[in-house]
Amino acid sequence: MANQGLDFAEFYREAKDKCLFTVLVSVGDRDTAQDLVAEAFARAWASWRTVSRHPAPAAWVVRTALNSGISRWRRRRRELPVADPARVADQPAAEWGGDGSVDPRIMAALLRLPARQRQVVALRLFLDLDTAGTAQVLGIAPGTVQAHLGRALAALRDDLVPAPKENQS
Amino acid sequence: MNDDELITVLREQRGKISMDTPVEQIVSRGRAARARRRLPGVAVALGAAAATAFALTSALPASHPAGPHNAKLAAWTVVRQADGAILVTISELKDPAGLQSTLRADGVPASVSFAGQQNPACQGYPYGGSQSQRRQLLTTIADPAGSPNAVVIHPGAIPSGAGLQISALFQNGQGSQGLVGVSAELVQASLQCTGS
Asked: A7 and A50 share a domain?
C-alpha cells in the first residue's frame, strides 16, 4: 500500500501540469479544468492498481476528466462555461494561473478552434500522445486525427502570425 | 513560421500553467470516491437484510414483541442500523405517506413530501448546533453519480420538540425520470407537521 501511494504521488507530480493544460485547452475554463482534473486524479488513485498498468495513465486521467465534464453537462442540462476567446485575449496572463507568463493570444487562438480540433491539439501536442493514442482517446480514426491536426495548425498559424503587409507603392 | 516552430511555441505554453492542488487533497478525494463506489454494495446488503428482517417480522405471531422496523420497497428503503441510526434511501418518488408512516413508527417525527409542495404546517426549527453536531444528527449520502439519494438519521440526536422534514425531488426537474435528490431539515414537531 505504501508503494502504491509513492508511485501515485510520483505520477501525479510528473503528469498534473500537462493534464491540466490539456483539459484547460479542451474545456476553456481554468476553474472547471482544475476541478475536473483533480476529480480524475482522485479516481485514478482509487483505481491505481488498474490505472498504473494502463499504457498511458495520463491519457486515462484526461479522458476521465473530459468524460466527467460531459456527464456534468448532461446532469445540469446546460453547457459548461467556456471562455470567450475575445475576452481571453485581453485577460492578464496571471489569471490563467502558473507563473503568469502564459501568452493570452495563444490561449485565445486555441479557444477559437472548433472543439474537436482543440482536443486533438491538446492530446497530440500537450499530452504528447501519438496519432493512434489520440485516436483511441477520442474514438475517431487515426486519419481523422491527422486531418484535424493539420487544419488546426493552419488555423493557428493564420491567427498568430500576422500576414505580411503588401507594398503600398 | 513552419509547423515545427509553431508546435514549439505552443508547447512552451504548457509549462506555464501549474496545478496547485496538493497530492494529499487528491488522495483524500480518492478515498471519498472509493467509499462512494462501495456504497451501493453496502446498501444492497443492508436492503437484503432489511427485506429478510421484514419478512421474518411479518411471519411472526402478533403477540411477538415488535422489533425494529426495517422496511423495503422498490421505491425506498428504511433500514435500522446496528448503532440505532436509520438509513433512508429513496430511488423512486412513490408512496411518501408510506415512508412517513414507517419513519413515525420507528420513532422519527417526520413529514415527507416527494416532488411536491412541502407540508405548509411545518415551521423551521431554530437549531443552534454546529456543523459537526448536525452531522451527528443527519448525514446525506450521495450515490456514485453524485446525486444525494439517501440520508442517515440518528433519532437519539433529534432535539426535543423537533422533527424532520424530508423532501425528495428529481434532480434534473424532468418530471418523472432522472436522479433523485433527497434533503432533510429540522422542523418544529407538531401534530399537523410531524404527527406528534
From this structure: yes
**How many Å apart are CA B157 and CA B176, to the nearest integer?**
34
* Model ipTM value: 0.73
Q: Is B6 near chain A, with CB under 8 Å?
A: yes
Chain A residues in contact with B26 by the CB 8 A cut-off are 12, 38, 41-42, 45
Range(s) of the domain holding residue A128: 88-161
| CA pair distance A83, A31, nearest whole angstrom | 11
Query: Which residues of chain A from 46 to 65 reach within 8 Å of chain B, CB to CB?
Result: 46
Contacting residues for B85 by C-beta, under 8 A, at least 6 apart: B152, B153, B154, B155
Residues of B in contact with A110 (CB under 8 A): 10
Q: Among A39, A59, A79, where does a domain finish?
A: A79
pLDDT average, residue stretch A44-73: 83
Residue A101 domain flag: yes
Per-residue confidence at B91, pLDDT binned at 50, 70, 90? confident
- Min Cα separation B21/chain A (Å): 7
> A5-9, A34-38, B44-48: lowest mean pLDDT where?
B44-48
Same domain, yes or no: A97 and A131: yes
Residue B191 forms contact with A (CB below 8 Å): no
Q: Which of residues 118-137 of B touch A (CB under 8 A)?
A: none
d(C-alpha A108, C-alpha A89), whole Å: 5
- Interface contact A21-B14, CB threshold 8 A: yes
Write down the pTM of the prediction: 0.51
DSSP single-letter state for residue A163: P
Average pLDDT, chain B: 73
- What is the per-residue pLDDT for A88? 43
